[in-house]
Amino acid sequence: MRQPQWMSLLGLATRAGKVISGEELVVKEIRNSKAKLVLLSEDASANTQKKVTDKASYYHVPVRMVNDRYTLGQLIGKDARVTVAVLDKGFADKLISLLDES
Q: Which residues contact residue 19 at a Cβ distance below 8 angstroms, ignoring those fewer than 6 apart?
């Protein structure tokens, strides 16, 4: 089974050191205007979803939803992650276009 392109690109961005994970780090980088894209798992708690989407909305950072925390964690080489931020504009723009296509 072939992996969707956005998943491969997120793995590449992780290896390039352009991805951070964890709610607190993601919110911090949104505030510092370093986050260019936030990926949020659909199974995140309502409180986490509200906190991250409100902060991203205020700082004009795009947010895209992905399937679940285990898939998101696996893609960046961790266990389970509910939120991930991409710090590079090029990776973020390509991920947005690939996620919007699928």
A: 10, 13, 76, 84, 85, 86, 87
User: How much is the pLDDT for 1?
Assistant: 64
71, two tokens: 């898939």
Residue type present at position 9: L
Q: 21-57 pLDDT, tens per residue? A: 999 999 999 999 999 999 999 999 999 999 999 999 9
What is the per-residue pLDDT for 91? 96
- What CA–CA distance (Å, rounded) separates 74 from 59? 28
Mean pLDDT of the chain: 94
**Dist. CA 67–CA 28, nearest whole Å:** 24
Q: What are phi and psi of 8, to 5 degrees?
A: -65, -40
Under 8 Å between Cβ of 41 and 69: yes
Q: How many Cα atoms occupy the beta-carbon half-sphere of 69 within 13 Å? A: 13
How many residues appear in the chain?
Answer: 102
H or E segment to which residue 63 belongs: strand 63-66
